[in-house]
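Marked as duplicate of an earlier ticket. Keeping the data here for the record.
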Amino acid sequence: MAKAYLVVRIKGQADVPHWVNTTLNLLKLEKKYRAVILPVKENTAGMLKKIQHYVSWQEIDIKTIKELLDKKGRRTGYKKITTEDISKAGFKTIDDLASSLSEGKMYGQNGVLGHNKELTNLVKRMM
């Protein structure tokens, strides 16, 4: 069973109800096509089901997490993640960070909304 979800916001910011916008902001999905990695927990699954018409999610593997961190990983100020940032977070390498994220130790039909088994392929095409 998966320990982490890759969640991507698919719909934009126009005509979004306040309660959906609040949930999206809590998940750090403020903008369209922003992606986050979330642990598989009961409250996370509930939040994803609540906003399933605005996001797409899938269980994520270590390889995809590592590739996503290498190509698109950013820290505060939209600066690229460096080895210093990884060591400050308590990890030796980016592989350690990726495996920790995939295990959920830090901190989810038709179409692309909701639980989506093809989301990894979509994200790879976006990179």
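See parent ticket for discussion. The chain has one domain: 4-126.
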